[in-house]
Amino acid sequence: MNNRTKHIIVIGGGITGLSAAYTLLHTKKKESIKVTIIEREHRLGGKINTANVTGNVIERGPDSFLAHKDAMIHLCEKLGLADRFAGTGPTANKAFLVSNQALTPFPRDTFMGIPYHKEAIEATNVLSEQGKSRALEDFFTPNEAPEGDESLGHFLSRRLGTEMMERLAEPILAGIYAGHAAQLSLLATYPEFRDLERKYGSFLQGLQTLMTSSKRTAKTSIDADLSSNARSTSVFLTIQNGLQTIVKALAEAIGKDNIHLGTRVRQIVTPEDTELSATRIHPYTIYLSDNSSVEADAILLATPAFAAAQILQDHDLQMELAGIPYTSVATVTLLFSSDQLDVKQYEGSGFIVPSTEPYTITACTFVSAKWPQNIHHGTVVLRCFIGRAGQDKIVLANDDEIIARVREDLKSLLHIEAKPGRVLIKRWPHAMPQYQVGHLDRVARIRQLLALRFPGIFVAGAGYEGVGLPDCINQGEQAATQILDYLQAQSPHYALVTKRSKG
Ligand code: FAD
Q1: What distance in Å separates the CA atoms of residue 114 and residue 190, rounded to the nearest whole number?
Q2: Ligand 1 atom nearest to CA at 472
Q3: Lowest mean pLDDT among 193-202, 281-290, 443-452, 485-494
Q4: Is 501 helix (H, G, I), strand (E, B) or coil?
Q5: Ligand 1 pocket residue status of 14, Cβ below 6 Å
């Protein structure tokens, strides 16, 4: 390759693709590069989708990010949004769980639903006496971790018993993936649990130690950093006016000339090696839905894995990529006026529904309490989730059926009879990747196959190494670095230096 400008194509304009493109354009580099994002939809953001409904900020996809994961914080700082972080409202520090068809507060001192103190386990009314004794056995059970991967459900029932697993731990831990603990990979979802077991023997003892030390660190950082109040006190953060603000800022920083919306990538074609070196300047040709094509030196597939499978012309890669299953979910947001509902009744961040309970709703956020700055005084907003692995047909039901089922659940659980003034349904077909047992090995095989058969093509995003927004940003940034390293390694100057240094 010569010293001409290298063209990098980022396929997919969700948070992964956007943060990759932003990093590519804003990293100091030796290569001259051009970056183009190609996005199928007529909008950027992918799963990030903020609506404004009569002045209320309604998130139809993600509503927040974990404050302790730095990637989003750093990105927002670079985008000039550091003064726009917003934490959860003052009453949102408690959450509820459905147990025996009624709402009950989560036990105190929990980590992701797991009470880690003997007293907290003994005090909860969610577990039977037998269930409590079984969970407490963990304190006296040594490390029994198997060598390879195991399911999250296997780990939790092995350590804490089936009751604790089903009633308290699974709803949050697997709920994040809209999945089932019995199918999710421990090593791909919560590898730190395995580390705690290895280090402390007792998983609960490990959690307790971890939580005590992190509370101490949090207290020190709160004292040191009183100015950024929202950042230091809230577990979850958002940005004023909603997460779409971040997408807008990224789009502006990337530049509209570098973004093609409403264009689906159909396939990537690679010429034979001989043809590539002899006659072609760019190694890859990308065919688009408008029948045009574009040439690229490097490509990032920041789409869901099943979409990458359709784009890449390779049987083995297609099998591996399509082997990552996705679950469909939907958010159903109901707006009431405070004449209809008493705002005070909906204090707390919301509730979670274990899969053992007979409801359509899998979780519900009390938006007006969790994000009071987003909602007009006098409006009560509840956001319900439906759909989980194996039970996602409901997402494809018609609006009337979805609304009827959600209202039936709210009547049973919250005694709400009132008809909401407005309902927003947002379906997300095949949205939540399921990291099944062996997922990490599968991702490693995908990367190996890519390096071998399609050098210069990379994958990143929710389907691979973390579904949370900060995880996706991390992956986008790492992919950008890999692309720049790859291009540099292709440059004649680099080849010369390497040859010389090898002697
Ligand atoms: P996506 O956002 O899916 O972006 C991929 C993009 O690729 C899409 O825009 C798509 O149109 C495009 N594309 C696909 N095929 C093609 C093609 N052939 N050609 C061109 N473009 C293509 N995470 C959190 O951290 N906090 C939360 O509160 C949270 N809540 C969530 C709630 C819901 C309802 C959902 C669905 C997810 C939630 N998540 C949350 C997870 C998080 O939102 C996602 O994992 C993340 O946004 C995925 O980003 P991504 O860029 O990897 O993929």
Answers
A1: 13
A2: 52
A3: 485-494
A4: helix
A5: yes
Atom of ligand 1 nearest to the CA of 330: 34
Residue 38, ligand 1, Cβ within 6 A:
yes
CA of 185 to the centre of ligand 1 (A): 21
- 3-state SS assignment for residue 468: coil
Query: Could you tell me the distance, in angstroms and rounded to a whole number, from the CA of residue 26 to the centre of ligand 1?
Result: 23
Average pLDDT value for the chain: 91
8 Å CB contact between 251 and 17: no
Three-state DSSP state, 157? helix
Ligand 1 pocket mutation, candidates 47, 73, 424, 471, criterion most atoms within 8 A of CB: 47
Residues 146-197: pLDDT tens digits?
A: 999 999 999 999 999 999 999 999 999 999 999 999 999 999 999 999 999 9
- Helix 244-254 to helix 15-26 angle (10° resolution) is 40
Token pair 């986008």 is at which residue?
A: 476
Q: Taking Cα atoms as reference points, which of 334, 481, 428, 456 lies closest to residue 45?
A: 428
The answer to whether residues 34 and 7 touch, using CB atoms and an 8 Å cutoff, is yes
Cα–ligand 1 centroid distance for 99 (angstroms): 31
Distance 367 CA to ligand 1 centre (A): 21
For residue 106, give the 3-state DSSP assignment: coil
Protein residue closest via CA to atom 12 of ligand 1: 12
The answer, yes or no, to whether any atom of ligand 1 lies below 6 A from the CB of 387, is no
pTM surpassing 0.70? yes
* pLDDT of 220: 38
pLDDT tens-digit series, residues 189-239: 999 999 999 999 999 999 999 988 876 554 433 333 333 555 556 788 999
- Give the largest Cα separation in the chain, rounded: 81
252/250 Cα distance (integer angstroms): 5
Q: How far apart are CA 101 and CA 296, in angstroms?
A: 56
Residue 295, both tokens: 């040439």
pLDDT tens figures, 396-428: 999 999 999 999 999 999 999 999 999 999 999
- Is the beta carbon of 175 within 6 A of some atom in ligand 1? no
Ligand 1 atom with minimal separation from the 310 CA: 18
What secondary structure letter does DSSP report for 169? I
CA atoms within 13 A on the CB side of 403: 15
Identify each DSSP E strand in 261-387 by its residue range.
265-269, 284-288, 293-296, 298-301, 326-337, 350-352, 361-366, 379-386
Would the CB of 462 count as within 6 Å of ligand 1? yes
CA of 462 to the centre of ligand 1 (A): 7
- Is residue 369 within a helix (H) or strand (E), and if so which, with residue range? helix 367-370
Amino acid letter, 375: I
